[in-house]
Specification:
Helices cover 34% and strands 23% of the residues. The protein is of the alpha/beta class. It folds into two domains: 116 residues, Rossmann fold (3-Layer(aba) Sandwich), CATH 3.40.50.720; 146 residues, Succinyl-CoA synthetase domains (Rossmann fold), CATH 3.40.50.261. The radius of gyration is 19 Å and the shape is globular. The two termini are 23 Å apart. It catalyses: succinate + ATP + CoA = succinyl-CoA + ADP + phosphate; GTP + succinate + CoA = succinyl-CoA + GDP + phosphate.
Length: 294
């Protein structure tokens, strides 16, 4: 089992023929991802050879789904065109759209997320500005390095890409059912809570690691959800303990105002919900080991 992505997922890549899209399509194929097509209206009807694998290019997401049965799209589309690309994926009712693109205007993200909701939430959006998700040994949709961990019993949900990689590496000997990078922009599709609910329901996940960061109240809301709905052990880490007030830290959503959104406030909310919170990623990994060791 895994959440959102598994060995049966059929993946298309919007923006596959660009330099970034080609690079990561090659890497995803190397991780065993079943990539069945690319989408580029200007190159429809052609195909791309990647290390001996011929991948057809389609004009639209709808056509790609019709011809291949695709149920996941990974988007490597420049920020200016990302909104239109996500809307196209939503119109085609693809079940999962993974938006890797960084620098999408917040009002564009808000618009395509609201559109997805208005269309009945038939398309789960992960991102934007995220590393995507991986179910090790099964499928990789995005830019997470596939060789830093193995299949296992830990579920990981994280706002930060680099901290996703670090935590996967720290716990590589135990391994992961799935790791989901949800992105750190002010508006995102899939949230901590969505991933927590999916991991709670996944019989192959024994422990959940949740990585948050300063800014907003997503972690506080996740803490409330954990308290009411999550029976599995959860270990947390909040990035940004040393961040000065009012300064944007890396991610567009990581802004602290007053005591709201601070790492300390988030840590306290999580601990009140029974989550063990590490002060560093390494300490967080150690807490996870101790719980799994019983």
């Amino acid at each position: 089992m895994a959440i959102f992505l598994n060995k049966d997922s059929k993946v298309i890549v919007q923006g596959m023929t660009g330099a970034t899209g080609m690079k990561h399509t090659k890497l995803m194929l190397g991780d065993g991802t079943n990539i069945v097509g690319g989408v580029n209206p200007r190159k429809a009807g052609t195909s791309v050879d990647i290390d001996g694998t011929e991948i057809p290019v389609f004009g639209t997401v709808a056509e790609a789904m019709e011809k291949t049965g695709a149920n996941v799209s990974v988007l490597f589309v420049p920020p200016a065109f990302a909104k239109a690309a996500v809307v196209e994926a939503i119109d085609a009712e693809i079940p999962l759209a993974v938006v890797i693109t960084e620098g999408i205007a917040v009002h564009d993200t808000a618009a395509f997320y609201a559109y997805a909701v208005a269309q009945g939430n038939k398309t789960r959006i992960i991102g934007p500005n995220c590393p995507g998700l991986i179910s090790p040994g099964q499928s990789n949709a995005g830019i997470i390095p596939g060789d830093i961990t193995k299949p296992g019993r830990i579920g990981l949900v994280s706002k930060s890409g680099t901290l996703t990689y670090q935590m996967m590496y720290e716990l590589r000997d135990i391994g992961f059912s799935s790791a989901v990078g949800i992105g750190g922009d002010p508006v995102i599709g899939t949230t901590h809570i969505d991933a927590l609910a999916a991991f709670e329901a996944d019989p192959d996940t024994d422990l959940i690691v949740m990585i948050g960061e300063i800014g907003g109240d997503a972690e506080e809301r996740a803490a409330a959800f954990i308290k009411e709905n999550v029976k599995k052990p959860v270990v947390g880490y909040v990035a940004g303990f040393t961040a000065p007030e009012g300064k944007t830290m890396g991610h567009a959503g990581a802004i602290v105002s007053g005591s709201s959104g601070t790492a300390q406030a988030k840590k306290e909310a999580l601990e009140a919900a029974g989550v063990k919170v590490g002060k560093t990623p390494t300490e967080t990994a150690k807490l996870a080991r101790e719980i799994l060791a019983g």
